[in-house]
Known about the structure:
alpha/beta; globular; TIM Barrel
Amino acid sequence: MRYNLLGNTGLSVSTLSFGASSLGGVFHEIDEKKAIEAVHVALSLGINYIDVAPAYGGTLAETILGKALKEVPRNTYFISTKVGKNTNSNAYGSDTFNYSEEGIRRSLDESSKRIGVDYFDLVLLHDIEYNNRQHTDWALNEGIQTLNVLKSEGRIGATGIGMYPVDLWKEVLESCVIDVALTHNLYCIHDTRLLSLLPIAKKRGVGIINASPFASGLLTSKGAPSWHPANTFQRALFAKAAAFCKKNGVDISTLALQFSAQNPEITTTMFSSANAETIKQNVNWFLEPINFELLQKLQEILAPISNQNWNY
């Protein structure tokens, strides 16, 4: 495993990082014991950064993560959680948003109790673009201000935002003071719009976390879940790409992970799984040499839908 500095935070994080959303049953039902094992396997393979949120599974992800980390020395991993958004079920339930100082402090206190830690290396404002951006200004003002106060108090180590839209990212990186940007679905085989954000992020010392290397399931042999906004044509094109890879003896997910994790300007690439064997497989894929010839052909297949906005 390789390790890289996360912007100006001083955190040296693994090139692959563990997203704990799967622990909340966000993608499918999970077995708690297997989910705990998955966390332990990730740490044993050199992954030292874990991200979670109370919105994942209606706090279930944080609860299970707390059980998994109970006997793990705190100085062996970095951890982040998110504030501002909560979800009331273990799947895709009803979201509520609160970016007030009182709401953020309460959320952080509750996350601390669930996970069993009194200090977070990083805390991110969660999905500030949701509900047609009606909460965005609230988050960028009171939300960021509150995180900076918590940082000055020593309660958290770094501040950040986790969201999707490229246009909003450009605005935030140019006008707001944050330490970390957690993006998702913006640096994949078919979508490299994250590259447009790297110069300003580097200039301002903002660390980049690149989540969803498998494009929310598009870049897998199974394909995207039913909720994904991809249309019939787009799904067919990804199925064609997966079949092409299979014909050449490679799982499309192998190239997807390798591509996302090979850019040295992106600090860490985050994936999520509640299955230990999947985590082992992902790390093995990461360590294998990338087949650039096959990757190029795959990009050519997906060229008709490159760099599209998916409205996640």
